[in-house]
Amino acid sequence: xxxxxxxxxxxxxxxxxxxxxxxxxxxxxxxxxxxxxxxxxxxxxxxxxxxxxxxxxxxxxxxxxxxxxxxxxxxxxxxxxxxxxxxxxxxxxxxxxxxxxxxxxxxxxxxxxxxxxxxxxxxxxxxxxxxxxxxxxxxxxxxxxxxxxxxxxxxxxxxxxxxxxxxxxxxxxxxxxxxxxxxxxxxxxxxxxxxxxxxxxxxxxxxxxxxxxxxxxxxxxxxxxxxxxxxxxxxxxxxxxxxxxxxxxxxxxxxxxxxxxxxxxxxxxxxxxxxxxxxxxxxxxxxxxxxxxxxxxxxxxxxxxxxxxxxxxxxxxxxxxxxxxxxxxxxxxxxxxxxxxxxxxxxxxxxxxxxxxxxxxxxxxxxxxxxxxxxxxxxxxxxxxxxxxxxxxxxxxxxxxxxxxxxxxxxxxxxxxxxxxxxxxxxxxxxxx
Length: 433
Known about the structure:
DUF58, vWFA_dom_sf, 6-stranded mixed β-sheet, 12 helices, 21 strands, Rossmann fold
């Protein structure tokens, strides 16, 4: 049972009567209060029961972060009496549901459709918490209330801001692939055709046997190999929880991974995904050609950074256990933390780089670079010293990784996605992939 605002005002008025009338009129006040209580009770009894209502949901089941989704709720009243009152369709706060409350009237034997707009503020599954209906009596003094469980889940997907870079990167990739005029030479690339030598061609591409049969120098043209395997590894350990520009490092890594996956998929390569910290959090395996972007996006959506240390030995073992006989490009999106990499990944690099080509990509913090340039006060000088040390360690671990044959991409949040795509295209251009 629920008491409405009108009933509260009536009780307040009765209390004033008691204060004014005093002992002489107490019997009258008692009678008024009794009548009021009887009216409220009768109103509650006469209010249609909201328990008999039936609910159905329909609408969107996924939405990109930053966009809106609509979920419809159909309320059916199997009874003969109309139900009027207030309906609240409750969701988690991060779902951004609106409106939260609305007046509703469901005629007897009828159905009413109400819509809720969701604007999620974080990735992951947003679930409905319940539908509460307050059925008001004919006098508006009392009401009955009931909460129904009406399950529905909307998955908030990564926003993929770097999608705007995809057309330009695809154009560059097609130039390498021979769909435009530019064909390149490189170790491990597929032979395409023969043509006459022009100034600027690499002399190593000259085909001497074909040249001997002709009167002009002939060179071979090559195109990058297709159907290569690429494994994108997301580090979901505690370092990925750090915020860069107000956004978790893991989210920046996801955006870069999506651009790379879309580019490589369009280029004819097979793209797999692995999310790992101390165990596998998510994985997507490619089977034949075709884009795996929808599956990768779905796998990324519920991922959160885990506040645990990473397990490099377990990661390397997991990678080597997948397609162990096939050489692939392994792209590890992590943090260039000198301490963790020196103790964890570096000792295990030989086992990984002997069988696969490894690329490490990391999101740099522009604020650290800005701090290193500050000299305005004593505090800023100390901060600059700490920032300089961080940058020096970052540069040192980058140099060490490159010395061991690892490709390294280190860029700020705005540039990490296109920089990673450029590094992939560069490997294609040099024939390393």
